[in-house]
Amino acid sequence: MKEMKYENSFLIFILFILINFSVKAQNTSSPFLMRATLGASGSSETVTFDNLNFIIQQSIDQSSVIGTSKNNGYTLRQGFIQPNVLGKILDTSMPIDLEANFYPNPFTEKVSLAFTQQINGHIEVAVFDMVGKLVFLKKYAAVQNLQLQFDNLSFGAYILKITANNRQLIKNIMKVRFN
Predict the structure, then answer these.
(1) Percent of the chain with pLDDT strictly greater than 70
(2) What is the dihedral of CA 155, 67, 36, 98, to 10 degrees?
(3) Which CATH code fits 87-175?
(4) Which of 51, 88, 116, 139 could make a disulfide contact with 99, Cβ separation 3.0–4.6 Å?
(5) 145-149 and 167-175 beta bridge pairing
């Protein structure tokens, strides 16, 4: 019984420290907080305590554990929530309604892009890695069908952003190796 009381006191102490040291960073008025959940599934919940709002996020299948502690059958897993990558990529001044057929996806080296509306002006193609870093950028003349060569990209998942006619198209793409 004494051990159980000690475990509960320890957990309450850890929770108290986490809340006290993270109040300024975790409240919803903080300009430094970026949040999004990447994973197979997860959820977010807003909790109000002492007139402060806290966002509690759960990310399932998160592959970025930075610490695990086990004690008497309890496991505390510490990780992080990925930053809002789409917020870095998306241009909020233009609509996301550019329509095009993109194929194949997944791809090996090149892809085809067929616009379903008339394209005027230039076409800008940008590719970002999954943390929002720009890895490919090129402008093309206005055409209805475009061949994109991505042989310099490493195998993996990317975010494709196409801009034309003051509209944008954003798609998840994947470069793979077929044997």
Answers:
(1) 57
(2) 0
(3) 2.60.40.3080
(4) 116
(5) unpaired
